[in-house]
Amino acid sequence: SQQGEEDPQALSIQEGENATMNCSYKTSINNLQWYRQNSGRGLVHLILIRSNEREKHSGRLRVTLDTSKKSSSLLITASRAADTASYFCAPSQTGANNLFFGTGTRLTVIP
Amino acid sequence: ETGVTQSPTHLIKTRGQQVTLRCSSQSGHNTVSWYQQALGQGPQFIFQYYREEENGRGNFPPRFSGLQFPNYSSELNVNALELDDSALYLCASSLRLAGSKNIQYFGAGTRLSVL
User: Fold this and answer.
1) Per residue of chain A (111 residues), what is the pLDDT tens digit?
2) Is A51 touching B (CB cutoff 8 A)?
3) Which residues from A are below 8 Å from B43, CB to CB?
């Protein structure tokens, strides 16, 4: 399967706490991307980490990648109510031109 | 805003009918992908168009077809609608170049209900 699988399926935290979600995949990759989807809307690209990178930061987002374990994690620090959304990881193979998504992690941030 | 626009935003059809959904790509993008997202599920890849030709297809029957126009806009056509076709249909555009990162830019989607 070319898709990533996110874990947990659902996560509920208090505003200000950190949120961590994980992704596992099965194929070799060129990069791995994380997307956010607000309810009933389109997906928004958050961050991309290349296969030769181990960690990447963007604002309150921190992504790690372990290619030996075929896994990635997304950490959102100091969460806000506006972070409430579904989060999807998308492993991208070399030469691939489309993405395959799992069922996502549904994050709820309680004000 | 990604610059990808989809129309219509909502649509109601009855079983057996045909539907056409439309997508305008982000300026400068040459590739369009279509996804189907059922309630509570992740987006499922339907197919992709590059240079007006189908360039990859997911596990969807032939009654799902598409077009890409010279201006890179695209249509998704679904014939003989079934109840299970009820879903959010997402269009995503991207720039296909050697060494590109394959980042997809999504529209807001078309919500299709089949009764």
Assistant:
1) 678 999 999 999 999 999 999 999 998 999 999 999 998 889 999 999 999 999 999 999 999 999 999 999 999 999 999 999 999 999 998 777 788 899 999 999 999
2) no
3) 43, 88, 101
The Cα A7–Cα A11 span in angstroms is 9
Residue B101 confidence class, pLDDT cut points 50, 70, 90:
confident
Cβ contact, residue pair B101, A31, below 8 Å: yes
Evaluated on CA atoms A18, A24, A29, A35, the torsion sign reads: negative
Q: B44 to chain A: which residues are within 8 Å by CB?
A: 101
What one-character-per-residue DSSP string does chain B give?
Answer: --S-EEE-SEEEE-TT--EEEEEEPPTT--EEEEEEE-TTS--EEEEEEETTEEEEE-S--TTEEEEE-TTS-EEEEE-S--GGG-EEEEEEEE---TT-----EE---EEEEE-
Contacts of A41 in chain B (CB under 8 A): 108-109
